[in-house]
Amino acid sequence: MAMDRGKGRRKAGLWAAAVVIGFMIAALPLSARAGNAKKGEKIAKTRKLGNCVACHYLPDVESPGNIGPNLVESMQGYTMADRKEVAQWIRDARKFNPGTIMPPFGTNKILTPEQIDDLVTYLYTLKK
Amino acid sequence: MIKKISNLREVLACAALVLAFTWLSGFSPGGARAAADNKAATTIEELTPSMSYKEYHKRYEAYYGDTTARMAEEGNPADFLLDDGKDLANKVEGTKGKSCASCHAKDALKLKGAAVKYPRYDADLRGIMTLALQINTCRRKQMGAKPLKYESYDQLALTMYIKSLSNGMPIKVSIDGPARPFFEKGKIAYYKRQGQLNFSCAICHVQYAGYKARSNLISNNKHHADHWPSYRLKWGKTGSLQRRFRGCLKNMRAKRPPLQSETLRNLEFYLTYINNGDLIQVPGMRM
Predict the structure, then answer these.
(1) Which of the four, A10, A102, B260, B261, has the lowest number of CB atoms within 10 Å?
(2) Would residue B201 show up in a list of annotated catalytic residues for this protein?
(3) Residues A3 and A42 reside in one and the same domain
(4) Does ipTM exceed 0.95?
(5) A124 CA to chain B: closest CA distance, Å?
(6) Dmax over Cα atoms in chain B, in whole Å?
(7) How many CA atoms does the CB half-sphere of A21 hold within 13 Å?
(8) pLDDT computed for residue A34 by the predictor
(9) Helix (H) and strand (E) counts for chain B?
(10) Which H or E run includes B285?
(11) What pTM was computed for the model?
(12) CATH code at A65?
């Protein structure tokens, strides 16, 4: 009897641990996940989300802004190894340019890490 | 022994769960808004004007063409407020049986040219007196009348009428003496990065004036203060400069101080000062 109870407890403990690990994986930020390019494109082109097109040129958008660089041109300079750097530009561009006008999408929680990941994945589809 | 280990596991699992939840809840959008607003910046960011006003104006003409001229041809809907404003200036109100005209002559014509020095420092207020606040102060102190609610039809009409008596005259705001600290505060407000998007008035209207935010040409801050109250197509009605400030602050996802609050009065003071020399032209009309 005593042994059985011990086993049951151990099982419960293992389950709890599994759930926790599941949560951790779901919340794993950035580079470790693949990101969804289609979602990323929507984020880039929706005013209440990323609204990248307010300042940047992106294809298939009516009258994008011209405050920031053309992102198709910018993306040609990056390889897959630069994923973290591209994400950092979105998360907080002040790291590269302290006086930037670009909103710190990560630091100020305008977008979630998942959304930023989706955006990065979308941006890489612009590489020719 | 087994029991002890499994207990330890449960404790660890619980601790990890708590950690994971805190980690996750930290990602809630908008959470940083308050934190971003609290960062009290007192330094003026060094910005380079994007281009000369002349160059900006060239871009404006090229982009919008004769849109504004065509709007003017069809007449300004805010013109109706002028007539009502004039009537209000002659209307007796309050416990003292007076109107604006009682002190400032029929149609308040003695106030011709008075608006060019507004906003100004006021010793009683120990702060910045805007034209709108001056009218309400006069009503309270001289007429014994109720203040007019800011942005109400009557308040806008009366302010616009009195300001129109200075139409065509250059703005001449003084920042000398005791006014100086309020000018500095206004300038800090103009340059302070704020809100979730981390913008300031200046970053757009100084450093990126003449560039396009989506399909909007970002305006140069010259002529920003010379035409209020103004009719605005986007509002479909007439409004004040401070209403416009609040609209901008909303877009910046920043805190919006109330109309005629100290912050907005100082900001109006700074902006009007940098527009010194621009000719007053009310009612304005903008897209």
Answers:
(1) B261
(2) no
(3) no
(4) no
(5) 22
(6) 99
(7) 6
(8) 80
(9) 12, 7
(10) strand B284-286
(11) 0.81
(12) 1.10.760.10
How many Å apart are CA B68 and CA B284, to the nearest integer?
Answer: 11
Which of B198, B203, B251 to mutate: most A Cβ within 10 Å? B198
A38 shares its domain with A20: no
Same domain, A98 and A120: yes
For residues A119 and A43, is the Cβ–Cβ distance under 8 A? yes
Give Cα A78 distance to the centre of its chain: 16
Instruction: Give the A-side interface with B, CB within 8 Å.
Output: 6, 9-10, 12-14, 16-17, 19-20, 23-24, 27, 53-55, 62-67, 99, 101, 103-104, 107-113
CA distance A99 to B174: 31
Of B14, B17, B27, the CB nearest to A112: B27
Considering the segment(s) B79-164 as one domain, its CATH architecture is: Orthogonal Bundle (1.10)
Select B42-74+171-286's CATH number: 3.30.70.3270, 3.30.1330.10, 1.10.150.320, 1.10.760.10.
1.10.760.10
**Interfacial residues of B (vs A; Cβ cutoff 8 Å):** 2-3, 5-7, 9-10, 12-14, 16-17, 20-21, 23-24, 27-33, 36, 45-47, 196-199, 203-204, 207-208, 211-215, 218
List beta partners, residue B120. Answer: B129
In this complex, which of A9, A99, A109 lies closest to B28 when CB atoms are compared? A109
Tokens standing for B247? 């609209």
Look at residue B287 in the predicted model and tell me its pLDDT. Answer: 86
Same domain, A42 and A103: yes
For the segment B41-61, the average pLDDT, to the nearest whole number, is: 90
